[in-house]
Amino acid sequence: MFQSCNLSILKRQELQVLIASILASFKLCL
């Protein structure tokens, strides 16, 4: 249970990094 919870936290962090990079590239396009 703890392992899967850790995995979801890691995935959430990766998602935040992905969104941040997409937003950064979008601002560069603007």
Structure description:
The chain is an all-alpha fold. The protein has one domain. It is 93% helix and 0% strand. It has one helix at residues 2-29. The mean pLDDT is 82.
Q: Residue ranges: pLDDT <50 for 5 or more in a row?
A: none
Strand content: under 5%
**Major sheet:** none
Helix and strand content put the structural class at mainly alpha
Helix content: over 70%
Beta-strand segment tally: 0
The gyration radius over C-alpha positions equals 13 Å
Domain count, please report it.
1
Mean pLDDT figure:
82
Basic shape:
rod-shaped
- Element order, helices and strands? H
How many separate helices?
A: 1
* Terminus-to-terminus distance: 43 Å
What is the fold's blueprint, element by element?
Elements: H1 2-29
Briefly, what is this?
By secondary structure, the chain is mostly helical. 93% of the residues lie in helices and 0% in strands.
